[in-house]
Each structure stands twice: as structure tokens, then as C-alpha cells.
Design brief:
about 350 residues; alpha/beta; five-stranded mixed sheet; four-stranded parallel sheet; 13 helices; about 10% strand
């Protein structure tokens, strides 16, 4: 993975002139206790090939990864704003990230009402006529309900239930976001339109279609149609796409640290009714609820799941993206929690030892 300097083109003079007033944005963006700003490339940066080409910064790991694959062997540089080890949904950066966005040629974001800091940065860009191009990966994507794979009358689910923003977990919907990123990058580097579009089509066909087929095989082979997760509600698109009930500990978007005793009680009933021995736990979430389920039910172990919302240091070192995380983290866990395979028979060598009841 190549890392370069700023790589900003001459057209960024408007943004640079604005940077002097960007310091005041700190009061708007805020500094969260979960971590400071990662700056551009906080979890790794990828370059298309030239140091003086346009720069696009991404607010979320999955779409950083899509964009860097689309930009391969072009002058476009793509950088991830979220620091390594942090979950891209709950992170709140300081003002330096807004300055990075202003100084970039394009900002790849997940649409409104998902990352408040990104929404605030977009308002700043629009209100002050900053010429950073905005690329909304969610454009044209149909969202499902937060409890889409669950029963409508479940506790906490009513007529006014919200929508699930984690659409990229469905590889078919992810293809729409690839198209959205591609259109944005073509606008950014029109002289390289052919390469950008070819890279995008290759990624959709060779990666996303294959992931979709392999997920389908996993769920088709399963005798059980329910998965219990000791994680927040981020997997309804997997449930909708492949016909399985994805049971989070809480139906809303709260992290697993906000689990109530009633949530644990309900999970216990699901585990007992379905003879569940293994559950999934969020890689970037607290493992306390998963440990409680092991202590109080017949569950033997928990294994990792992730909505591709962040990366661990070793994943950056190995240049893992959406594809590698799907095959090395989520798919082996779904094989195990569905009862298709024993933990020792899935994943790469040593997978079960590495991930069983991971810390």
C-alpha cells in the first residue's frame, strides 16, 4: 500500500483559502472521548498511481476500500479518514478531519443521518461554497427496516420504526454504491473514465458477485434459520438477502454496551428454542454481553462478526478490504453459528484458536 504526500492539485485554492476559517469548526465538530482525529489516511491510504492527482477522502472504511479498488492504476488517491481500530459509525473526530475534507478534491460519505460529523462537514462545505466534490454512496439505495428480518410485533418494533443504514452488507446493494463512487471519481478524473469504469465492473463481477454467491451457499446449506448476535443491529441486510433471522441483542442501532436485562432474557429464549451453541460478537464492540450469554446459557463460544465498519492494525498491515474481511471474519463465523461446520473446520489455519472468545 503506497503512502504519499498531500497530492493536492492546483484547483484546491478555494479550499486552501477557506482553511484559515476552518479552525472555528472545532466547536461544531467536537472531540469525542473514543479517539482523536486520524487525519487523512488514518487507517491506511491508497493511491491510484501519481503523486499530483486528485485526492478523495472517505468517511467509512467499506467505501474507502471500494474507491481505492476503482481508482487502481489511475492518478486518483483515496484516503480513509477513520483511525485504525475505531468503529466508523460511532466515531466523533475533532476539527482536523473537517480541514482534511475541505482540502480534498472529493468527500465520499454514507448519506445523511449516519455519521453526524460527516453531516456537519457537508453543511460547512455547502454553506461556504467550498469546492470539495460530494460523493454520496447511498444514492438510489433502498433501505430496509431496522427489524426487517424479525417479526413485526417484536418488542421495540412499531409503526414508526426506523431504517437500517448498513446496506453495504448486502453485496447487491453494495454494487449500487460502487456505481455511485465510480460516477464521482469519473467526474473527478474524466481523462481516466475508461479505467475507472473497467475497474468498477471488474470489482462488481469478480468480488461482489462471488461474495454474494458464497454467502448464498452458506445460508442455503443451513438447517437453522436464526442467528443470535451479541452485537448491535447491523446485519438485517444479510437476513433479508439470504432469508435468515438475524437476532441482535437490541433492535435499534445502539451498541451492544447498551443491552438491557430484557434483551439478555430474550436472547436466552432464542438460544434455548433453537439449540444454539455459538453466537457472533462484534469485533469493535464490548464482549461483555457475549460472555454473559456463555455464563448463563448453553452457548459454548462466541466468534467475530463485523459490518466492515473499521479495521484492526493487522488487517491494515495485510491490506485487507471488504473482500478479505468477508472471507476471513464473517463467513467462517456464519458457518459456525448456523451449525454448518465446527469451528476447527472453517477459515484459514488457526482461525478457531485466534477468534474463539476473542478479546
Amino acid at each position: 500500500m503506497t503512502r504519499n504526500g498531500s497530492g493536492f492539485s492546483g484547483q484546491s485554492s478555494t479550499r486552501r483559502a477557506f482553511l484559515g476559517s476552518a479552525v472555528g469548526i472545532g466547536a461544531t465538530v467536537g472531540l469525542a472521548g473514543c479517539g482523536g482525529a486520524g487525519g487523512v489516511g488514518g487507517a491506511g491510504s491508497g493511491t491510484g498511481g501519481e503523486d499530483d492527482g486528485p485526492v478523495a477522502v472517505a468517511s467509512f472504511f467499506s467505501f474507502y476500500d471500494f474507491a481505492r479498488k476503482i481508482a487502481r492504476e489511475t492518478p486518483v488517491t483515496v484516503k480513509n479518514l477513520v483511525p485504525t481500530g475505531l468503529h466508523g459509525h460511532g466515531w466523533e473526530p475533532d476539527a482536523s478531519v473537517t480541514r482534511d475534507i475541505i482540502d480534498a478534491d472529493a468527500f465520499i460519505h454514507v448519506g445523511e443521518d449516519f455519521q453526524p460529523w460527516a453531516d456537519r462537514a457537508i453543511r460547512t462545505i455547502e454553506d461556504d461554497d467550498v469546492d470539495t466534490q460530494l460523493i454520496n454512496v447511498r444514492e438510489g439505495v433502498e433501505l430496509v427496516d431496522l427489524a426487517a428480518s424479525l417479526d413485526r410485533d417484536e418488542e421495540g418494533v412499531g409503526a414508526n420504526r426506523g431504517k437500517d443504514p448498513h446496506f453495504w452488507l448486502d453485496p447487491r446493494r453494495a454494487k449500487q454504491s460502487v456505481d455511485n463512487v465510480t460516477e464521482g471519481l469519473v467526474d473527478l478524473a474524466p481523462d481516466h473514465e475508461e479505467s475507472l469504469r473497467e475497474n468498477a465492473e471488474t470489482y462488481k463481477t469478480d468480488v461482489l458477485d462471488r461474495i454474494d454467491a458464497d454467502y448464498q451457499s452458506i445460508f442455503d446449506r443451513a438447517e437453522r434459520d436464526v442467528v443470535q448476535l451479541a452485537a448491535h443491529n447491523a446485519f438485517q441486510y444479510i437476513g433479508v438477502r439470504y432469508g435468515v433471522r438475524m437476532r441482535p441483542l437490541v433492535v435499534n442501532l445502539a451498541a451492544s454496551g447498551d443491552v438491557k436485562p430484557s434483551d439478555i432474557t430474550e436472547a436466552k429464549q432464542v438460544i434455548a428454542d433453537n439449540d444454539i451453541r455459538y453466537v457472533g460478537a462484534g469485533v469493535f464492540e464490548t464482549r461483555k454481553p457475549a460472555k454473559q450469554l456463555i455464563a448463563e446459557t448453553a452457548v459454548e463460544s462466541y466468534f467475530p462478526v463485523t459490518p466492515y465498519a473499521g479495521v484492526r492494525e493487522e488487517w491494515v498491515e495485510e491490506e485487507w478490504g471488504y473482500e478479505e474481511i468477508a472471507y476471513n471474519v464473517n463467513m467462517p463465523t456464519f458457518e459456525v453459528v448456523l451449525g454448518n461446520e465446527s469451528p476447527k473446520d472453517v477459515g484459514p489455519d488457526g482461525w478457531a484458536e485466534q477468534w474463539r472468545n476473542f478479546e
